[in-house]
Design goal:
single chain, elongated
């Protein structure tokens, strides 16, 4: 377990969405959501510009593994 410092404003925002979850769970969900949005954007752009779907799938898989995202 590690200690982090955040601003009062960020703390209030986390508390407002926390509910019964831990701060770690909320932060993990926010990170996963951000990564998911990035993957969607990569797919959107790449499908317009690339015919190599297998390469695109490999890149997305690599991103997911690097961030250990459960999508």
């Amino acid at each position: 377990m590690k200690t982090i410092t955040i601003s009062d404003e960020v703390y209030r925002k986390l508390v407002s969405i926390k509910g019964k979850k831990s701060f770690s769970q909320i932060i993990d969900e926010l990170i996963a959501h951000n990564v998911s949005k990035r993957i969607e954007k990569i797919l959107e752009i790449s499908l317009k510009e690339s015919e190599d779907i297998e390469e695109l799938e490999r890149i997305v898989k690599e991103i997911r593994e690097n961030f250990r995202v459960r999508i």
